Amino acid sequence: MDTKEMTTEYRLAHWAQVMHDRKQSGMSIKDYCEAAGFHENMYFYWQRKLRESACSQVKATAADTEKTLVPQGWARVEASAATVPSCALPIEIGVCRVLADANTDTELLARICKALASIC
């Protein structure tokens, strides 16, 4: 890590603490910034920087674990084309695939699709 990255990390950590303290104080952003002696534009600038940093970390983590990411309580099952019945209806949401046939419980299928849509 070079000096520039260390400085950025330090500033992000500092502003994360400032925002935490503001939230704990119960004051409005305007009042808190005035009391702390800085303009609220600076507060919003660093809030945006913190969000961008968090999003880039999430994207990097998601890219690393995209193929191994399985929701808690679920198991990844790989099916080959030979095991898929010809009368099954494949439903794909994101990278997840569910096979439904005439015997599939429609209420369960609806819940599964809703859960998959919320995570994909």
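(the above was protein one; protein two follows)
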Amino acid sequence: MPRVVLLSLLLAVPVSAADWPQFRGPTGDGHYTGPKLPTEWGPDKNVAWKTPIPGKGWSSPIVSKGKVYLTTAVPQTNGDQSLRAICVNAESGKIEWDKQVFLAPKSKAIAHPKNSHASPTPTTDGERVYVHFGHNGTAALDLTGKVLWTRTALYDRPVHGNGGSAILVDGRLVFNCDGVDKQFVIALDAKSGRTAWQKPRGTSVDKPFSFSTPTVLEDGDKKQILSIGSGVMNAYDAKSGQELWHTRFAGYSLIPKPVVGNGLVYFSTGYDTPSFRAVKLGGSGDVTDSHAEWTATKGAPHTPSPLLVGSEIYVVSDRGVMSCLDAKTGKLQWEERLKGAYSASPIEADGNIYLTSEEGKGTLVEAGWKFKSLGEFDMKEKTFASFAAVEGALYIRTENQLYKFKSR
């Protein structure tokens, strides 16, 4: 049955409720509202269209004003990578434009075997599309695919390639730069690409590289940026970049995006052995001891982001163990092994949780205090990207295709 979702996130961009403008949707936490989504999907189930996508990219699709945007990397014969932005018509599935934004030389075409050269998800304010390729560059395009500005050379040593996505907050594009050489959070003016503020992590750890996406939090009449990197989560004033508070932990190569609710921020602590934590919002300075609420040591994810549904929080480990915890106490309610390994983050719609494995095996689970599977599906193709959902349609990017599913 439908669940009440308590959200303390702000919409990061002024877009229609019918859009899915960024990683994890309008509120950045994986929740969909709108006409009922299909509850079955697959290569021969509820397919509205499918479109081959050139190259390789694990970036998730976004949807705005009837267009689907995503990025990809097309290998060149000399080992370079053509880093591209693609626009697909959401009604027909036709590719309207496919533009090269950067050409990454072989020497900078760094990626873990499980990663791609185009893993960060684009974002849009409905007037421009912003694409981010980590250390290889960030750019703004107009809706015809014309490149308006670019920023490069912010950092050089990402270790495993690009991963974390950028978000839009009050006319600024905010993202993490966590390489071996430099670790900071930056806000660019969305119109010009110039730096509005840039703040160092202010920590020293053995393995400083991470790949997470910032989260926006409403704090009265202000907004905060919650940004997690190796060994630390920092909270910054969104306008000035001033650090407000931070909490420390042991962990590196952070990937999951934090979520907020119930007066808490929830996050996983990364490699080698992750824990899943809840920390009280607010405070000033180092709140590591004063604001710790609870820690769960079993089933924490390295890659998929958590999903908060009212008083329940759901996590999926990379090995495919799904857990439901009491969001206020951290008490384990249930855990269940799903089929396959997991990188994509789940979404919630109509009281149901949509999941897809790296092998393309999907599962629909009813949100609740007891595990109940509503169906299993198979795309028969690798699927690392997370879902997008708009106006009753579910969008899934596989290794070679972009699918739109809609109930008939």
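Reviewer note on protein two: Confidence is low (pLDDT under 50) at residues 1-15.
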